[in-house]
Predict the structure.
Amino acid sequence: MSSRRAVTGGGAGGAAATRGDAMDDLRARAEGLFPGGVNSPVRAFGAVGRPPLVLAAGAGPRVRDADGRWYLDYIGSWGPAILGHAHPAVVEAVRAAALDGFALGATGPREVELGELVRAAMPSLERLRFTSSGTEAAMSAVRLARGATGRDLVVKFSGGYHGHSDGLLVEAGSGVATLAIPGSAGVPAAIASATIVVPYNDPDAVAAAFAAHPGRIAAVIVEPVAANAGVLPPAPGFLERLRAITMADGALLVFDEVITGFRVGPGGAQGRFGIRPDLTVLGKIVGGGMPVGAYGGRADLMGLVAPAGPVYQAGTLSGHPLAMAAGAATLRLLTPDRYDALEAAGARLEAGLRAAAAAAGTPVGITRVGSLLTVFFRSGAPATAEEAFAADRAAYARFFGAMLDAGVLLAPSPFEAWFLSLAHGEGELDETAAAAAAAFAAVEAGR
Ligand SMILES: *Cc1c(COP(=O)(O)O)cnc(C)c1O
């Protein structure tokens, strides 16, 4: 799979690739069009002090910039590209769907097919609904939790990302169990104050929030493996405590598996750790690289969603046939043995990175769950976002730059996961470890 170079690209990126200055031109035009030059903030390179890449094509484990240079890719479309880029089966499924027309404004066969695949893999989703993004799905799950419980407050964890809806774009207020403050300009304080932010991996803080607001919390929403502050594995017993605390108070447990779903195992984190949430939020892999989200869970709860019930939620392009086709083609290829392969690849890369850091004398904390990992420039693995954010950002920027110069593309932020794919073979993983050995040495040389 890793040797595929099917995509040669057309349009501006492909044609201009021979010029060698296409990227500068596109970057300048993007900066004149989009805030910060990007259509999503994570695509900016401000945190690593480099001009942002313009990526024109992807094939297997690699991506190609607009000047024609290829990189071994660990951004993975920020999660969806678990098969690598432009997998032939997914491309063919999308092509076939396109020939049937785009969204037709009614239920279609591909929604039913993908819905059944999802439920077969994650039985807690007795009923589900597709949306066009993870943001919408998380926002809708929270609305449903409030509608179902008649309660307003929601608990989330610092460093947890659940999309950019107002109530979930918040920061911790002062002190545990206090109400949150806006995490963005434009979020009303009144909306932020319906959310309580507590540290990840701190079940006592969750218990304290419930003790401070008994009978008032609708739901706890959690990434069962936090992956938006770098990868933070759940401490043993953490998810179990969340299940017990919510159940005892009549609140709902919402797993945001937008990243972990179909990533850390065939049944997501809930399958891997054996916890059954009331509601689950999906996105990324379930759309095979197309815009998608989904939420689902207990049939009695989902029965409250319009038009079956009083909780309104809708979407003109929800369940889009191209997205459904890409998702179904992806899930069909993710047989259980593929997760063994991802686990082995993750372990190989982790071992290579640990050896490289040790050889250079660089203190690192490496966290990993399956094919998700983060190298934190601090000694020891962090357990919370607060500990993660204390890592050495300048060291990461030097590491990132050295890796990029060696042809390995990491997330342009120290607090993101590395996303492995099934297209990353042993050769690519060893190439990465070799590049990392030199990059850690460059970090030490720069201190
Ligand atoms: C990416 C992400 C979202 C938001 O999904 P979008 O499709 O970007 O709106 C929500 N939750 C988690 C855990 C994510 O990583």
About this structure: The domain at 88-333 is CATH 3.40.640.10 (Aspartate Aminotransferase; domain 2). The longest helix spans residues 336-360. Residues 1-17 have pLDDT under 50 and may be disordered.
